[in-house]
Design brief:
There is one protein chain. The protein is elongated, with a radius of gyration of 25 Å. It is 5% helix and 50% strand. It folds into 2 domains: 249 residues, Jelly Rolls (Sandwich), CATH 2.60.120; 88 residues, Immunoglobulins (Immunoglobulin-like, Sandwich). The termini are far apart. It is mainly beta.
Length: 381
Amino acid sequence: MKVISAWVLACLIILQAEAQENAAPSIHLICYFPSEDAILKMQKIKILQSGDASYFEVNGFANGYAGLQQTPDSSFGTPNILISSLWDPDTKRGVTAKVEYIHSSTQKSRFGGEGDGWKTINSYRWKMNCWYNLVNRAWKSRGRLFIGIFVLDIATQKWFHSATLSIPDPGKYLTARNDAFMENWDGTNPLWDGSIVRKALFKDCWILNDSGIWEMNTKVTFKANGSQDIKRDGKFHDRFNAYLDTTENAFCMQHGGNTRPSAAFNHGRTIDLPLAVNPEIAPALTKVVIRSMAISTGRGKVKVSWTVDNSKSPPLSAKLEIVNASGNTLASIEDTVPQRRNFTLHTVLAKGKYVARLSAMDIFNQWSAPLGKTFFVGKAD
């Protein structure tokens, strides 16, 4: 039997202490659904306590994730940002993710280290103690899977479309199981390590399955990362807790500081939580509204632009029809691009009276009431 001297043992303890990062343990809230795949995931979050180097993932899916961060990086103009990432299916073989759209206030960049892909960051300036509803909506076109990132500030009732990412069609959409996740991604700095308590509420986790039917979770499991993170977590490895907050009807996750698991954990790191009370078979939603439309004609073109009400559900696709005085549809165009606000139809119209009829489908598969506007080509009768 090999005997380790006291001096060697002391050195080993020092080295282990230096290797420890003292991060709060990574924790998960996993929601399960009857279906296996989903075209939409959404969940509400309210952050109660936070600190720098904090990530509150709200929606996780097979190819990526979306959530809120508090970052010590000052380059974004605010510590409170909105982030979404999509992994490359196979970087080495050139099968990569792609950024299809970013809002003017959103930044994009490549990432690596835990797989490679694209990430988008928006200086969203989320606020503590306020509810936000994060939505990921997927659709397929031209052999690719597109994933849009949308967020609703519930206090102001304003929707925001931060980005759209895509990968080659993997055969599925987002997968149904949802993994919400809290991480203290850097525990090396005492200004933002596991000594800080981070706490958030999660509620109303819904999916729209691949048949277009709403489902709410039928099981919710909390899990704290185990032995693989002991060195990373250091003395904060057991500082976690989770429970159903019956006042908010929401699931609470907390880690760091003096947090301790409740007796329900029975010294374990995983627990099935009681389900929130929700008698609804579908979420309460607004519907996309087209506010205004403008039309111009000439040189064999009909150009139509429009605006939408940002306090209503965001559009996913739009359809435009040109109808003559007899009610016949002469031309039409339809496209699935959430940020689209104009169409150009190449069609030669005789002199006369016409109607441009525009409708939009929102990210929840709801069609707006069509908006019609009369226009004339040539001299009006």
